[in-house]
Amino acid sequence: TTFENKILKYCQRAYHACSPEDWPNPVPDNLTGIFEDLKKMPQGSSEYTRIERWVGYLVTDSELPRSLSNQLKEWCQQNIEGYSELLREVDNKPKSTNSYLMVVVQASNQNLVSNPNKEEQYFVDAWFRQNDSVIDCDSLSNPGSFPETVTADQIPQILQLFLDVSTKYSWRNLTIELFLPLALMNQAVDTWEIDDEFGFPTPIGCHYQVLVRSAERLLQTYSRHKGCWQQKWDFFQQLSQGSACNAFVSGDGQDLKVLFVQLSKNNIIGLKLVKAPLQVGKGSVFAVILKAAIPVALWLRQNLSNNCQKEVDGLLNCCCVHELPEVVKNKRLDHFPTAPDTHIGQHLSLLWEDPKRLPPSIEYSM
């Protein structure tokens, strides 16, 4: 039932919160699995058992129904020695600040030969990464709950499913990274809406940092560009506040060959576009970004009547470069109430390619 599913979600969140950082097992999808794992987890330095700590996290979950929370508190007071101290320990545990939902979209190419007129189909897979210090990701893909391949229009619904599944984890700040094929790079992913039982749909870009990444960078053939990509990312990390704009090149109206030469320079790490890209897919400006191994790009998906150059440069100059995803998120939120097509926040895409943060490799049967 829905109630039982919600309770399981709270139990999974508590499990996730009390797991050791290097715990290799994914979050179980039933209570039996949770209890079995809790018994196997090493004790660590705490004087409380893992099960006691798990109960501590469960009882302090603010979303837990009050009646259940009160019953649990009563049980804890009677059965856990030093219960108030346990609550302090649970409350003081440093929480991971950034978690990641990584969604990979790959073209299936299955129908192109037999039926060239059929709409393109895509594989969609997702992983949850608890924080920057964790190497392993938990797979969220569940082929049984949706079709093996979907159309581009169905991807937002799949993302909603993955977001629902990821609530079993305990996180404070969630970043959504969408690895898209070249043909979909200009999709307005941050405007996809979360529709829930409250009847007030809102764009995901108002709630989370939503970053675009390239699915082609996950291909084996791209490994030849990995060294240059890493080099540019390292240089990017060293930029001081206010200097980011100098490391970005404008691609507006540029010949793509000339642009490639500019982007290939060692001190250039980013591309900015104030005019909407003329084309997407192979041979487009997004292909140039790939070939030059550029890790960051900021562009408008639509041409706006007002002059946006100043505003885009302002975004790059107003913050330390690593804060750019948060600055872009705030810009999207600020412009949520305004009329469509009047502000950059409604049409702003951010490519953000951290070479160390990648999902596991996937083998598809094409």
Q: What can you tell me about this protein's structure?
A:
The chain has 366 residues and is α/β, with parallel strands linked by helices. The protein has helices spanning 2-18, 31-40, 50-59, 66-79, 83-92, 155-165, 204-207, 226-237, 256-263, 285-291, 309-317, 324-334, and strands at residues 98-107, 122-129, 138-139, 173-180, 193-194, 202-203, 209-214, 248-250, 270-273, 296-300, 348-352. It has a 5-stranded mixed β-sheet with strand order 3-2-1-4-7. Helix 1 (2-18) packs across helix 3 (50-59), helix 3 runs antiparallel to helix 4 (66-79) and helix 3 (50-59) crosses helix 5. The longest helix has 17 residues, at 2-18. The protein starts with a helix and ends in a 14-residue tail after the last strand.
Task: Furnish the topology, listing elements before pairings.
Blueprint: H1 2-18, H2 31-40, H3 50-59, H4 66-79, H5 83-92, E1 98-107, E2 122-129, E3 138-139, H6 155-165, E4 173-180, E5 193-194, E6 202-203, H7 204-207, E7 209-214, H8 226-237, E8 248-250, H9 256-263, E9 270-273, H10 285-291, E10 296-300, H11 309-317, H12 324-334, E11 348-352
Parallel strand pairs: 1-4, 4-7, 8-9, 9-10
Antiparallel strand pairs: 1-2, 2-3, 5-6, 10-11
Helix pairs in contact: 1-3, 3-4, 3-5, 9-10
